[in-house]
Amino acid sequence: MSHAGHTYDRIAAHFSKTREYAWPEIEEFLDDRTGELGLDLGCGNGRHAEVLADHADRVVGVDASTGLLAEAADRAAESGFDADLVTGDAATIPLRDETVDLAVYVATLHHLRPRERRLASLDELARVLAPDGRALVSAWSTEHTKFEAEETDGWGLDTEIDWTLPGGETVGRFYHVYDPAEFEADLQESDLELLEWELSSGNCYAVVGP
Hints:
The chain is of the alpha/beta class. It has a single domain (3-209), classed as Rossmann fold. The protein is built from six helices and nine strands; from the N terminus they run ααβαβαββαβββαββ. It has helices at residues 3-17, 24-30, 47-52, 66-79, 115-128, 180-189; strands spanning 35-41, 56-63, 84-87, 100-105, 129-140, 157-164, 170-177, 193-200, 203-209. A seven-stranded mixed beta sheet has the order 3-2-1-4-5-9-8, with helices on both faces. Strands 6-7 form a two-stranded antiparallel sheet. Helix 1 runs parallel beside helix 4. The radius of gyration is 16 Å and the shape is globular. The two termini are 28 Å apart.
């Protein structure tokens, strides 16, 4: 299991309680799109898989954390949506080539290290997207107010941000916080086609194709 998988297993239940609602950027991306197979890569507690289920005939949620996948299974049962939940690594997606019509890959890319794994995950996303498939990719940005005072020299920064559990225990989470120009450059270097991108709520968002 990846380092991120272990980390999120430790905080899964508490983390899930704070992640109830889908991001508006994901809802906007999916609004006028449909497909046969939808992929939520780094699905966490399934909040975006639930939205994706309204736009795709079948949904696969992939996450490195079995604890978060258990939370997603509970959410699916309670909310009444179907999703195939799979333990997997974003840098080696367990799906066949050119099968995914719609994908969301949000708040996960920035947990991968080193840069080669981040690029590998983008290439993997390109591999599984169908010829007309579309995906939304997001990562935390240095434009977020949390990082305003940081000197990043245009290439983002590696940092650790604590999650505080009830009772006061802290669990460190690795982040590569992207400089916006670096985010664009990594997408351009990958096998994905960068169609559009923007900054929103301290995150970089990109719509991509294969």
